[in-house]
Amino acid sequence: MTDQQSPTSAAKAKAEGIRIVTYKADRGERAGLLLGNQVYDAAGLTGDQRDLSVMSILADWDNAVVRLSDALRSRLSNGHTPVHGAELMAPITAPGSIYCAGANYADHAAEMAKANGTQIRPKSDRSWHFLKSSRAVVGPNASVELPPNSSKIDWEVELAAIIGRKCKNVDLEHALDYVAGYAVAIDLSARDLSRRQDVADGSPFKMDWMSHKNFDGSCPIGPFIVPASEVGNPQDLGIELSVNGELKQKSTTAEMIFSLAEQIRDLSKQITLWPGDVILTGTPAGVGTSRGEFLKAGDVVSARIDGLGELRATMV
Predict the structure, then answer these.
(1) In the prediction, which pLDDT does 280 show?
(2) What is the C-alpha separation between 214 and 5, in angstroms, rounded?
(3) CATH topology of domain 98-315
(4) Angle at Cα 65 formed by Cα 182 and Cα 268, nearest 5°?
(5) How much is the pTM?
(6) Where are the domains of the chain?
(7) If 0-12 CB within 10 Å is exposed, 13-18 middle and 19+ buried, where does residue 284 land?
(8) How far apart are alpha carbons 162 and 103 in whole angstroms?
(9) d(CA 179, CA 267)
(10) Contact criterion met (CB below 8 Å) for 46 and 52
(11) Could you give the CA distance from residue 247 to residue 249 in angstroms, rounded to a whole number?
(12) Residue 22 forms beta bridges with which residues?
C-alpha cells in the first residue's frame, strides 16, 4: 500500500457535526468550528495550540478530529461563548498545492470539444491535472475582481477534496483514507487567455495555462470543510451552479470520468501529497463557453454540493 497507516477508526467515527472554518480575528486568521450560524474558536474549545489554524489541524488530522468532536460535545454541556461577528474566510486560506482535474466529466469534455472545434479524446490510462496557485484562493461571499485583460471569464463548480495525511504511491483501495474532508470550489477561467495570440498555431508554447487558470480570486473555496467520514461516498453527490439565480450546471459526481480515488492514486504516483493539499475534481457540462456567455461585473455565482453547503462569489 504505502508507508503510511490508515486513519484510526476513532477518527472516522467522531467527526459527526463538525464544520471546520477559518475566520478573521483581531489576532489574525484562526480556525473555528461552525455550529448552526455560530462560530466557536477551535483552539479555545480544545485548549490545544495545534488547533490555532486549519493547516495545523490538517497536519494532525487523525488526533485533531477526535479533539474537535469532543470539544463540540463539551461546548453543548459547558456553554462556551461563540465568536462575536466572525467573518468567514476560505476554510483553508493557503493550501499547499491545488491540483485541478481537466475535462473530468464526459459531458463537459464534449461541450468543450464542440466549442473549440476539436475531437473528443478517448479516455487515457490515468487522470490529467493542472496546477492552480494557492494565492488565487478566496472564501465565501468574496468579491472577485475581473481581470482587465480578459472578457471571457467562465465558471466551473467543483468538488474539492482536502488531503489530511501524507501519501505516496497509494493504491486505489486505500486512496480515500487520505482525504480529511470536502468543500465546494469554483474554478474561474479566462477562456480568451488560454492561447497566446502572438504565438503560431502548432507551437508548443501556444497554450497558456498560467493566464487561463490563475488570476487573483480565481479559486473560491468554502464555505467550510466537512470531514470525509460524514460525507460518505464522494461519487454520489449532487452538484450545481447558478449565475444570478439562473441554473447553469446540474449533475452528480457519479459522472466523473476518473473518480477521486483514481485521481489520488495517479497523483501520488507522481508526487507526494501532503496535508493541506487540495484536489479539484473536475466540472460537469454547463459552463459559459458552451453558451457563449461570460461573467460580467455584478454577477453573483452560487455553487452547491450535497451536504457541503453553498459558496457564493460576486464579480466586480
Answers:
(1) 98
(2) 35
(3) Fumarylacetoacetate hydrolase; domain 2 (3.90.850)
(4) 50
(5) 0.90
(6) 9-88, 98-315
(7) buried
(8) 20
(9) 13
(10) no
(11) 6
(12) 31
Cell numbers for 138, please give them: 478566496
Backbone angles phi, psi at 68, to 5 degrees: -65, -40
Contacts (Cβ under 8 Å, ≥6 apart) of 196: 205, 206, 207, 208
Using pLDDT thresholds of 50, 70 and 90, give the confidence band for residue 1.
very low
Q: Are 22 and 88 in contact (CB under 8 A)?
A: yes
**pLDDT tens-digit map of 157-215:** 999 999 999 999 999 999 999 999 999 999 999 998 877 777 778 878 767 777 778 99
| Chain-centroid distance, C-alpha 160 | 3
Quick check: 295 and 315 in contact, CB under 8 A?
yes
